[in-house]
Amino acid sequence: MGNIIGVMSNERITCEEYNEILKANKPHILIDVRPQTAFKNGALPNAINIPKAELEENAERIKELLKKKAEEVNENEIPLYLICRSGVTSSLSIPILKKKDINSKDIIGGLLEWKKKIDPDFPI
User: How far is CA 21 from CA 40, 69, 110, in A?
Assistant: First the structure.
């Protein structure tokens, strides 16, 4: 099985796993797929806001961001992570990007889980 909302379990990570990525300063891109108003109210500091509704039209921009970041750190490719408020919108965003040949992983439980397990002061 491992299939959640049409997303395979290997296309998802926990907020604890993402926190370890941040602590280790591992190169990656994080896209917050919430609407801009929600993003402005509180977001992780390294997040780039591209709402789910705008992902398809921003596919080339996302590919360029990934390419540029990979070049900066002398890697062939770097991971792309998606986050939203609860993890639903980010998981629904994975197939949209996959159709554009962009692999990504969503952060399970989104920012609600982040607030609960990592940063209780995070503004939601």
Answer: 23, 15, 15
